[in-house]
Amino acid sequence: KLPAFYANVVLLNVSNLPFRLQKLKDMFISKFGSAPKFYVRAPGRVNLIGEHIDYCGYAVLPMAIEQDILIAVEPVKTQVVQLANTNSLYLDFNTNVNNIQINKTKPQWHNYFLCGLKGIQEHFGLNNPTGMNCLLDGTIPPSSGLSSSSALVCCAGLVTLKANGKTLSKVELAEICTKSERYIGTEGGGMDQSISFLAEEGTAKLIEFSPLRATDVRLPSGAAFVIANSCVEMNKAATSHYNIRVMECRLATKLLSKSKGLDWKKMLRLHDVQTKLGVSLEEMLTIVEEVLHPDPYSTEEICECLGISLEELRSQILSQNTQDVSTFKLYQRAKHVYSEAARVMEFKKICNEAPADAIQLLGELMNQSHISCREMYECSCPELDRLVDICLQFGAIGSRLTGAGWGGCTVSMVPTDKLNTFLKNVKKAYYQTNVQRLGVENNSLFATKPGRGALVFVEA
Hints:
Layout: E1 10-12, H1 19-32, E2 38-49, E3 61-76, E4 80-85, E5 93-96, H2 109-124, E6 131-138, H3 148-163, H4 170-181, H5 191-198, E7 204-208, E8 213-217, E9 223-229, H6 241-259, H7 270-277, H8 281-291, E10 297-298, H9 299-306, H10 310-316, E11 327-328, H11 330-353, H12 358-375, H13 382-393, E12 398-402, E13 409-415, H14 419-431, H15 441-444, E14 445-448, E15 455-459
Parallel strand pairs: 1-15, 4-6
Antiparallel strand pairs: 2-3, 2-15, 3-6, 4-5, 7-8, 9-13, 9-14, 10-11, 12-13
Helix pairs in contact: 2-3, 2-4, 3-4, 3-5, 4-5, 6-11, 8-11, 11-12, 13-14
């Protein structure tokens, strides 16, 4: 019997295990010589709108998808964690639970598991944590912008929690997993982990921060959301693109704060500036125009504006993998964040009020979001832009990149009566005209609906 906090626990009799779970169990027995005691599932997500603003403190609007990370687990008496993957491309790994080492320079799959493991261990101060045998099966395309890495961190956190007989609320779990994913070097904001735990079937969620909370957002019934993978992979932890954007937003926060006489050393997020000034998002956009210039800022100019040395900039503000960056675009990043934050709130308002032209209005917001991501945040790529154009050409009302960008997926809003024709035409135009993408469209192009959050399965 599981602790009461598991709101969505499913108790399953062995004979009723779905095919995927049964297959995972058989592979586990073959691998470890014994049966798993429980299973943990954490979903991926698609962000409908609100890109690159969670780490700035602003609300986002994602939903969980059916694709997930699933782990079969057997707690063991030895203090060793053995990790295996149903995909032979991901090599086995084992380590002592009292000596967790996470290699930031090599973001291999097992390091994401170790993030979740370490996060729970440190939260509870576990001196003698339980060893485990774990077999992982994933259906989220890697490096696709659908949060496969965060789903793995969340799954590992939940695995460690259950194996050690501890309990936490879903909000606490989301916050711990957000912090623990930073062990691998990605300065994320918390959207991915929050929706993985807080998602509910049938509804998207407005995720807000400080404090973390989730509000149902009912999507219009006359449209489907379609995910299309550009087939360009981008790993956030393996490059500095993502962290550079985080630092640019942090630096913009510092300069805006100082210009308004605020205690800039304590200000980390663009949302903090708006809160302290007590102004609207529209007014913040005006302030950005007044304070920041469109030309890139050199590190020397930033130091001069803040009255600090280059060494202080590097040691007190910049992340480890942005130490050698010489120029930063502050105006463009701040403009994107404040305008995107306004689009999220407008998206939610339209969904709540459900006017007759809701689908058209939501589509326009998605299109504006992609333009801003492409031009102001520069996190798109030629393949994503082409895919967005194709989707709009064949009937999508709105289409945009989703996830970190620089590759990965688009999400498009398509009227349900045009869905089949849309899928057929996009397959032909994007996937079947390219040799490298031939044959992958069935796994790369699909309509989706809001799924449920993280689950623990045990055998009754």
